[in-house]
Amino acid sequence: MAGPSTLAERLIARAAGRSVVSAGEIVTCRVDLAMMHDSGGPRRVKPMLERLGAQVWDPSRVAVVSDHYVPATDAESTAILDLTRTWASAHGIAHVFDSEGICHVVLPERGLVRPGMFIVGGDSHSPTGGAFGAFMVGIGATEMLGVLVKGEIWIKVPRTLLLSWHGCLEAGVTAKDMMLRLCSTLGQTAVNYRAVEFAGEAVAALPMAERMTLCNMTAELGAKAGLIAPDAITLRHLQEAGAPLEAADIAPWQTDLAADYEQRLSYDAAALSPQVAAPHTPANAGPVGDYAGVAIGRAYIGACTGAKLDDLRMAAEVLRGRRIAAGTRLVVAPASIRIQRQAEADGTLAALIEAGAELLATGCGACAGFGSALLEEGEVCISSTARNFKGRMGAASARIFLGSPYTVAAAAVAGHIIDPRELLS
Amino acid sequence: MIEGAAHRFGDNIDTDQLAPGRYMKGAISELARHCLETEDPGFAGRVRPGDVIVAGENFGAGSSREQAAAVLMKLGIGAVLARSFARIFFRNALNLGLPVLVCPTAGEIADGTRLMVDPILGQATEMAGGRRHDCEPLPAHLMAMVQDGGLLPHLEKTLRKSPHG
């Protein structure tokens, strides 16, 4: 007899039309929503669909987001964006977001990611959707072709690690710090192929944007999915995002501590200090004090994991009434147009710009080494993004440090890495 | 059967090293010229058809970009043997028909070793000396797809069989 199931097992069982599934089984899941972006999406799947002479199984279950090559900088990126638009329109795709923000942020903004759903995303940071109690997994372009044609995908049911964060984060310590700590303690492979389920009062206390950061970066641990059981905070978000009412049924998607977890690990949130990852992997992280004094030339607040409204507000908390250090460049790219408007309305953006920040158009751009504002040879950058792989943000000789928006903003003010709590009242 | 020289890499070879973001706009052939250049600047120029990558843990970490596997195929790489793979890369490679084999002893294969790889049996044999490296076998449904040349030809075949399936 099967015992209680992990959240991942229950979500997969629903999508597979089964009452229960066990870790290790290979099952076929019906896809509730398939998300693609302009880089890995239409430009890759169009020729394959044509070769098959096949149609999209259900255009109402497909989202296409142009976020990688926006704004177009040359003929090639213009052509990619044109192709994306034309394809989405020709196939009657229901959810099309062009230059409106980063896919992982725009979909939840529009209430498209809801508890209980099984979603595939053509991007490795797709586990972000797990913050809403959906099973959301990243896949590549040919895999997406299979989904577009059949509306289903095979998946091996993952084992789950339960990561519980107890206590209360100190002021100036964030979800990014929690993740960098997990990256350094667990490493880049310990969670490979597994699901991660977050629990504990420190996680329950996080606002949605911070939960998204937590789930997003389970990709850096190699996880298939990062999950948080939906609660009142999730429901409030769904309501504000205009999600349909049936999304309110969150009872089946709660964490069951008696489930068969591969490992249960506990962390003390109160003991956590701001963390910084040194080049060239998020796993190379440690307390900010270990890197204090490292001079930086560039600070970047951007990406799905580092430029949501809460992230911009954190940066503004540090920057309000201050100027960035001479010789330092602070670049900010809000994660969506909607976030940018909110940040304009509440004075957040003004605080950043008055401190000396340059505003970039919303999109994945600098984080992924696309578009403008790439790092120059030998440049040292601290970034609120998720990855600091060698050469990712530009020149291979550039060095990228990662930190929370507080830590990035504080480094921009000081011209070197410092504990952001020194600048927070 | 795949036959070629081993190109040896370490742990956590990521998708930005395999397919750097700043060259992603262009054609696969152009992107392939920059494959692994941050690790080994002469790599793309040295690879010969049938050559094999041998690597450590977590090969293909990071992005979902399928180009990370496509550039290896473009260069003529016949198979990748690694102690472990990042999950999206693993699926992408199989979907494109590139054999990726989990090989616990991949780290013991020296750079330049001539290898014969049988992806069906999951075996790599050193041509000098005959040492055999056993790899984890792929599940049957994946092996069928790889034998068809990847997911696209596999779908072509299955859709032809049942056009309304």
Mean pLDDT of chain B: 94
* Overall body shape of chain A: globular
Distance between the termini of chain B: 33 Å
CATH topology value of chain B: Aconitase, domain 4
Side-by-side strand order of the widest sheet of chain A: 4-3-2-5-6
Task: State the helix count of chain A.
Answer: 14
The CATH architecture of chain B can be given as Alpha-Beta Barrel
CATH superfamily of chain B: Aconitase, domain 4
How many beta strands in the DSSP annotation of chain B? 7
CA gyration radius of chain A, whole angstroms: 21 Å
> In the CATH hierarchy, what is the superfamily of the largest domain in chain A?
Aconitase, domain 3
CATH class of the largest domain in chain A: Alpha Beta
Low-confidence stretches of chain B: none
Helical content band of chain B: 25-40%
Helical amount among residues of chain A, as a percent range?
25-40%
> Into how many domains do the coordinates of chain B divide?
1
Sheet-strand content of chain A, in percent, reads: 15-25%
Query: How many strands of chain A?
Result: 18
Low-confidence stretches of chain A: none
Structure overview:
The complex is a heterodimer of chains A (425) and B (165). Chain A has two domains: 7-268, 2-Layer Sandwich (Aconitase, domain 3); 274-422, Aconitase, domain 3 (2-Layer Sandwich), CATH 3.30.499.10. Helices cover 30% and strands 19% of the residues of chain A. In chain A, helix 2 packs across helix 5, helix 6 packs parallel to helix 8 (208-216) and helix 10 (309-319) runs parallel beside helix 14 (405-414). The mean pLDDT of chain A is 96. The radius of gyration of chain A is 21 Å and the shape is globular. Chain A is of the alpha/beta class and 425 residues long. In chain B, helix 6 (140-148) packs across helix 7. Chain B has helices at residues 15-18, 28-32, 43-46, 67-74, 87-96, 140-148, 151-161; strands at 2-8, 52-55, 79-82, 100-102, 114-118, 123-126, 132-134. The chains are: A alpha/beta (425), B alpha/beta (165). The A-B interface holds A 26, 39-40, 44, 48, 51-52, 54, 69, 74, 76-77, 80, 121-124, 126, 138-143, 145-146, 149, 154, 188-189, 192-193, 222, 224, 281, 368-370, 374, 387, 389-392, 394, 396 and B 12, 14-17, 20-22, 24-26, 37-38, 57-58, 61-66, 69, 84, 86-88, 91-92, 95-96, 139, 141, 150-152, 155-156, 159.
